[in-house]
Design brief:
By secondary structure, the protein is α/β, with parallel strands linked by helices. The protein contains 3 helices and 3 strands, in the order βαβαβα.
């Protein structure tokens, strides 16, 4: 089972992706989510996901800047 972190500023999309990954596709467990890149960076090291799914355009820190910092 792959551990996934979702970074998306729209709550409905985060929840939809979680449902899709865990219940429709299977083989994935969403271990964390965040509404922006800054929040994601704070939890990323402790969660250590196998997969990171991110939006590009978000407030506070966008997905591309978050990826650069990772």
């Amino acid at each position: 089972m792959y551990k996934v972190m979702i970074v998306e500023d729209e709550k409905e999309i985060r929840e939809g992706l979680k449902h899709l990954l865990e219940e429709v596709i299977g083989g994935f467990k969403v271990i964390g989510d965040a509404a922006n890149g800054a929040d994601a960076l704070n939890g990323l090291e402790s969660m250590k996901p196998d997969v990171l799914i991110t939006d590009i355009r978000m407030d506070h820190m966008d997905g591309l800047e978050m990826i650069r910092r990772i």
